[in-house]
Write a structure and sequence with these properties.
This protein has 402 residues and is an alpha/beta fold. The chain contains 17 helices and eight strands.
């Protein structure tokens, strides 16, 4: 008897529900597609590309639409002898400067045994190497920077690349830059000279509404799940819950996928609404745990200090109660403590992530206004996460629970 066997009731092709799946057609983004096509038209005409800036929250279709359109652009321009189009993608998630972007772009264009070191070169030398690599490719080159907001204020490369041809750094190449950002405020933080060059064409991707999410899910479900694998109302529930939260197609797909996994694990042949609610709770828990692990070192220290009080039933607690414990834990962990105001910023971050509840109190002239904090999540979960923190000296109360 086999230990494993293929699904015959829930998933027909579960890869179609995954984040990296590229659909053959785009649903619920007609206006954005049309604006994008118009912005790319100069490429088809053999002209200098326009620079394009896409922005909107995570999971609203920016990357999916870009991959879809650019793939078709490459296919459609192949018929023209005077258009030689190359598209180069670079995800900037772990890059924080123009220098790092330039180095990684060079290495994206070079063979593995010819790549350059990420340190040790003057920035202008890296730019010169990049121009040499682009010249060796020739033709029209679209450089797509996904999650470009991670480079912050060090945006010089976004000024240099669009102007490289007019400044004489490139001769045979027609470069175009496409920046994709999850941060609405990133555009406003760009230097004026960068904004003038990068943002020739701007396309905003708003959050999806529930009917749009339902259409996206239904299109995927037709191939991803077997017939009758979802009970009535399941697709609309996933769409509604995601629309109310983030308006993200990625969240809606994750919710349906997780609900399907729960149904499969329970040996059931149909996804029902209770599976969706259970899936939402599980995904929220996972997101919170990930948020705690991804905090900065001082975020971890503030978390441990608050946990120490919570385990002693001393929460809700004021900043004046948490700060001394934070300071002691930091010193025992060989970390220089932040001033109280900066530590308070980390507590505010924990509240924003849904880890802590924050209550505003006002005692009038005598006591003034202040905040109190307590955990919004199960302490057992926090203890499990804290146990994995490295380099932090846990107080006895916390250590006994980890």
């Amino acid at each position: 008897m086999s230990t494993f066997s293929r699904d015959t009731e829930i998933f027909r092709d579960e890869d179609m529900l995954r984040e990296d799946y590229q659909p053959e057609s785009i649903t619920a983004r007609e206006e954005e597609l049309e604006a994008y096509k118009t912005a790319l038209q100069p490429v088809v005409n053999g002209a200098q590309p326009r620079n394009i800036f896409l922005y909107g929250k995570t999971g609203v279709g920016k990357t999916a639409v870009s991959r879809y359109l650019l793939t078709r652009l490459q296919q459609d321009t192949a018929q023209y002898d005077d258009v030689d189009l190359s598209v180069v993608w670079l995800n900037c998630t772990n890059l924080s400067s123009s220098y790092q972007v330039a180095v990684n772009l060079v290495n994206e264009l070079r063979e593995p045994d010819e790549q350059i070191s990420t340190t040790g070169y003057p920035q202008q030398r890296v730019f010169d190497i990049l121009y040499e690599e682009l010249e060796s490719i020739g033709g029209t080159i679209l450089l797509v920077f996904d999650e470009i907001d991670h480079i912050g204020s060090d945006d010089e490369i976004l000024y240099e690349l669009p102007r490289a041809r007019s400044n004489g750094y490139l001769e045979s190449v027609k470069p175009g830059v496409i920046g994709i950002s999850n941060d609405f405020g990133f555009r406003d933080e760009l230097s004026p000279k960068v904004k003038d060059t990068l943002c020739e064409e701007e396309i905003h991707f708003p959050p999806y509404q529930a009917p749009e999410l339902e259409a996206i899910l239904q299109r995927r479900v037709d191939g991803a799940l077997y017939d009758n694998a979802t009970a009535a109302g399941v697709i609309s529930l996933c769409a509604a819950l995601s629309a109310q939260d983030t308006g993200s197609a990625r969240q809606a797909l994750n919710l349906l996928y997780k609900a399907g996994e729960l149904a499969r694990a329970a040996g059931e042949s149909t996804i029902i609404e209770s599976h969706v609610h259970e899936a939402r709770d599980a995904l929220e828990q996972s997101q919170i745990e990930h948020g705690m692990r991804e905090l900065t070192r001082h975020g971890h220290l503030a978390l441990v200090a608050t946990l120490d009080l919570a385990l002693q039933d001393a929460t809700p607690a004021r900043v004046r109660d948490i700060y001394p414990r934070y300071r002691t834990i930091a010193e025992h962990s060989d970390a220089d403590p932040l001033v109280r105001r900066r530590m308070h910023d980390h507590l505010a971050d924990l509240s924003m992530l849904g880890i802590l509840d924050r209550w505003a109190r006002n005692e009038g002239r005598a006591g003034g206004q202040y905040y109190e904090y307590e955990f919004k999540v199960d302490l057992t979960t926090v203890c499990e996460v804290v146990a994995d923190f490295e380099g932090i000296s846990l107080p006895d109360t916390v250590a006994r629970h980890t």
